[in-house]
Amino acid sequence: MNTFLLISAAIVIAAILLLAPSLLRGRKEVAEDTRDDNIRIARERLAEIEKEKERGDMSDEEFAQAKQDLEIALAQDLSTASSQIEKTDNRGTARLTLVIVAVAIPIIVFFSYQRIGSPQYLHISGPGQPAVAQPPEQQLPPISELVGELARRLEAEPNNPEGWFLLARTYMRMERYTEAAQAFERLNEFLPDNPTAMVSWADALSMANGGQVPDKAVQLLDKVLQIEPEAVSALWLGGNAAVQRGQDQKAIDYWSRAMPLLEDEPAMQQELRGLIAEIEQRSGLKADIPEPLPEIMAPPQMSVMPTPQAPVATGAEAEGNGLQVEVALDAELFDLTSPNDTVFIYAKAAAGPPMPLAVSRMRVADLPIQVALTDSMAMMPQMKLSNFERVLVGARISKAGLATPQSGDLHSDEVETSSSGGESIQLLINQQRP
Fold first, then answer.
1. Strand 323-329 to strand 425-429: parallel, antiparallel, or no bridges (unpaired)?
2. Does 110 lie in the same domain as 194?
3. Contact 371, 392 (CB under 8 A)
4. For 81-136, what is each residue's pLDDT tens digit?
5. Within 10 A of 20 (CB to CB), how many other CB atoms are there?
């Protein structure tokens, strides 16, 4: 049985036991006590007047009168008490009252708690550990519903560049490229000549065209490179467009310019070398680029532009260990975020230290997203997901990028689950810390 219910029942029973003696005692016993008190008081008064007579403070006549008055008063008191005893033997009524109280108090407490308490938090998961409640209405709705809600809101309140950017990125992840291109076009209305917006628009147009870079996208890329000559994504996508148009030398030039800009992304450098090598082999052209780094695998592409890959689990983790977590942001909170705000997706022990067992760090621009939380993300060897049977999974957005929760952060409900994984966990960021 729930510990809370046991404690509550004990309190109610204690209250009833405190009332029982008074109710069961009845007024008859009270009247009898009054009769005894009257006799005791009369005896004490008689002793006092006898002492006064012995000291000479009272004459024989005064003593006789005082004693007579005392006897008369006592007789009246005893007569009254006897009458009360005859009339007030109500033990049956007292027992009935006790039964009514014993039934009424629990009923009143129960319905009062149902009305003003929190009965949804009475569920228990594990010995003494309250489960984190997640009512059905707070569960993550389908991504399509969230996207539809955001689209309707932006149509009603279009002056929201961050919203259009998030909507377009979401369409890209859902492979709804035509709608993504339309959303990026709306974004361009509010952020004209913005390199990031124009490159993204060009990418969406290309994906909607089956990976072929259309003329409109080429115009956007040329404009981006005029504003920002070292825009890596524009150089990459521009090289794709040049190859598709048979402009091999132009493609080599674009990709050669992008190569040194990717020093921190060796996998992407290696992919560019592979693309350039294909051109060299079929055309005989030569590119002046550094020697390739050995044994670096190129990441798969989600679009015609380079996309950084999330860490890939290996060994036992790749066989299914870990937690799959889907995270989305409520459309009502989009106005409170920026694309570069940090998103922390974490798991921590349901019963144990508050330190996260696994954390994935993303950006608002990446939402909605699915990530894997695994043992490889442990901050300490003894603090792994697999070391704890039950964990709490949550997501939080921090403008300051701080691991410690701050006032104003946006967050989801924490969901309790088994650390062994299973079905994907869905989180909706829909609340703000006070």
1. parallel
2. no
3. no
4. 555 554 455 556 666 676 676 677 777 766 676 666 555 555 444 444 444 444 44
5. 15
Alpha-carbon gap, residue 205 to 223, rounded angstroms: 15
Q: Is the CA virtual torsion 155, 158, 160, 166 positive or negative? A: positive
| Tokens representing residue 37 in the block | 């008190």
> Is beta strand 369-373 parallel, antiparallel or unpaired with respect to 342-349?
unpaired
Strand, coil or helix: what is 194?
coil
Give burial (CB, 10 Å; 0-12/13-18/19+) of 119. Answer: exposed
Report d(CA 411, CA 132) in Å as an integer.
Answer: 15
Q: Which of 85, 5, 98 is nearest to 38 (CA)?
A: 85
Q: Do residues 199 and 237 touch, judged by C-beta distance below 8 A?
A: yes
| Residue 368 phi, psi dihedral angles, 5° rounding | -70, 155
Residues 266 and 193 in one domain: yes
Residue range of the domain that includes 212? 143-283
Most confident of 244-253, 276-285, 329-338: 244-253
Question: Domain total for the chain?
Answer: 3
